[in-house]
């Protein structure tokens, strides 16, 4: 029996990525990183800023996301996200821009605790990429 | 009868109008293809979002404490209507169709004695509505600068709506937009987004999901996003509809201009000939009288 399942990542503009031969996906779920293998129980969860790691037969890919929802059902993993960038495409200047934005957001004083937490997460993740 | 010179001028002016409408038609056709593509590409996202929410709301244990965005405020007094139109004119019945739909809804609400608030997206809607419903319009949003519909703009509108909802400014929110069916047909739509209308029968799927964190928390995070998503969908449909509508309107205009040029050319030739005949008769009768 094969150990592969299907992943689909969509953002509002288009279907970002569809892959059939995925072995494992690690997503930054809100309550901590979560690895998903084939025949995982049906689950719905949402994401915090972080890196989605997709391990497939052919290659491994990493994506930076700022938010999103995941749904896993019948060996179909759907990830809905508004901001997703492939780490391979994320060059220094882009990363710097995002980091600056995130830092500005994190340093605002009037935001709620949750927003602050998310912004801090963004900063942390962006700094860790390299 | 107009003189030959006048006719000549008119033909020239109709021809140059035809050139403009032809160019506009071609531009609209090119834009339409792009808009249609992005509308189609945007569909999976909103469909998936809807599915997840449906699954979630089926699974929610405690209906009474469900987030207000899902279940509503329990009242039905103040209606907020978001009327989405284009920023540019010359697109046939596109804007008027939305406005017509919206106006009939407005008068229904006002007849029921409820309060009405309007947000217009796109300047054309604002222009048409402010004469009658000027005092009801609480906000006018326009994205003249952005070339294509993008999620960022939709999110802005969504945030404004949610802010107002949380401040208790309205109970029910409906958006008006044109759904793109094909180039000739666009269907004006009224879609209620707050509270969420789960009219489609709950296909009581036995799937039991694991939720992490719990349903309520996911829902309260998801619902605001869903609002933006629905608005984004409406914007995409709208921009495809706008280009489609403009294309067929300009196609008609080009054809009409062509007919007009033909008619004017015939008239021009006829009067030219009449003038020649008249001159000939004058010469002949002059020669005979000698």
Helix and strand content put the structural class of chain B at alpha/beta
- What's the CATH architecture of the domain at 46-201 and 208-249 in chain B? 3-Layer(aba) Sandwich
Unreliable sequence segments of chain A:
none
Overall outline of chain B: elongated
Arithmetic mean of pLDDT of chain B = 86
Summarize the helix and strand pattern of chain A as letters.
Answer: EEEEEEEEEHH
| N- and C-termini, Cα separation of chain A | 37 Å
Which band does the percent of strand residues of chain B land in?
5-15%
In CATH, the architecture of the largest domain in chain A is Sandwich
- Contiguous uncertain segments of 5+ residues of chain B: none
Q: Bin the helical content of chain A.
A: 10-25%
Subunit organisation of the chains = heterodimer
Structure described in brief:
Chain A has about 130 residues and is of the alpha+beta class. Helices cover about 25% and strands about 45% of the residues of chain A. In chain A, strand 5 (about 50-55) and strand 6 form a beta hairpin.
Layout of SSEs?
The complex is a heterodimer of chains A (130) and B (290).
Chain A: E1 5-10, E2 15-29, E3 32-36, E4 43-47, E5 50-56, E6 60-65, E7 68-73, E8 76-80, E9 84-86, H1 92-107, H2 113-128
Parallel strand pairs in A: 1-8
Antiparallel strand pairs in A: 1-2, 2-3, 2-5, 4-7, 5-6, 6-9, 7-8
Chain B: H1 4-59, H2 68-71, E1 78-84, H3 94-111, E2 115-121, H4 123-133, E3 137-141, H5 151-166, E4 172-180, E5 186-194, E6 210-212, H6 215-289
Parallel strand pairs in B: 1-2, 1-4, 2-3
Antiparallel strand pairs in B: 4-5
Helix pairs in contact in B: 1-6, 3-4, 5-6
């Amino acid at each position: 029996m094969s150990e592969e399942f299907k992943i689909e990542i969509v953002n509002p503009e288009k279907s970002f990525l569809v892959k059939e031969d995925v072995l494992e996906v690690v997503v930054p779920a809100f309550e901590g990183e979560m690895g998903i293998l084939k025949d995982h129980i049906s689950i719905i969860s949402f994401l915090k800023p972080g890196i989605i790691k997709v391990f497939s037969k052919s290659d491994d890919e990493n994506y930076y996301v700022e938010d999103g929802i995941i749904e896993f059902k019948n060996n179909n993993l759907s990830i809905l996200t508004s901001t997703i960038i492939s780490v391979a495409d994320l060059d220094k200047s882009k990363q710097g821009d995002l980091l600056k934005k995130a830092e500005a957001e994190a340093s605002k004083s009037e935001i709620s605790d949750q927003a602050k937490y998310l912004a801090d997460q963004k900063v942390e993740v962006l700094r860790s990429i390299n | 009868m107009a003189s030959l010179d006048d006719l000549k001028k008119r033909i020239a002016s109709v021809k140059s109008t035809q050139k403009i409408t032809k160019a506009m038609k071609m531009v609209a056709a090119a834009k339409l293809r792009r808009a249609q593509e992005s509308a189609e590409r945007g569909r999976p996202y909103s469909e998936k979002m809807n599915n997840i929410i449906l699954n979630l709301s089926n699974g929610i244990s405690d209906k009474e404490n469900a987030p207000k965005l899902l279940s509503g405020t329990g009242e039905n007094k103040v209606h907020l209507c978001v009327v989405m139109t284009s920023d540019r004119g010359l697109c046939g019945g596109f804007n008027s169709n939305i406005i017509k739909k919206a106006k009939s809804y407005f008068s229904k609400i006002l007849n029921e004695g409820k309060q009405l608030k309007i947000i217009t997206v796109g300047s054309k809607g604002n222009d048409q509505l402010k004469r009658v419903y000027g005092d009801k319009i609480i906000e006018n949003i326009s994205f003249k600068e952005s070339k294509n519909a993008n999620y960022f703009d939709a999110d802005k509108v969504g945030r404004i709506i949610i802010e107002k909802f949380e401040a208790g400014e309205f109970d029910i929110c409906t958006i008006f937009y044109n759904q793109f069916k094909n180039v000739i047909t666009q269907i004006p739509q009224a879609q209620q987004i707050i509270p969420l209308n789960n009219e489609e029968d709950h296909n009581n799927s036995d799937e039991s999901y694991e939720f992490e964190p719990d349903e309520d928390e996911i829902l309260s995070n998801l619902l605001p996003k869903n609002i933006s998503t629905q608005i984004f969908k409406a914007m995409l449909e709208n921009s495809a509809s706008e280009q489609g509508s403009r294309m067929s309107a300009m196609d008609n205009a080009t054809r009409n201009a062509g007919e007009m040029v033909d008619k004017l050319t015939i008239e021009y030739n006829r009067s030219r000939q009449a003038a020649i005949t008249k001159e000939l008769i004058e010469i002949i009768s002059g020669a005979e009288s000698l």
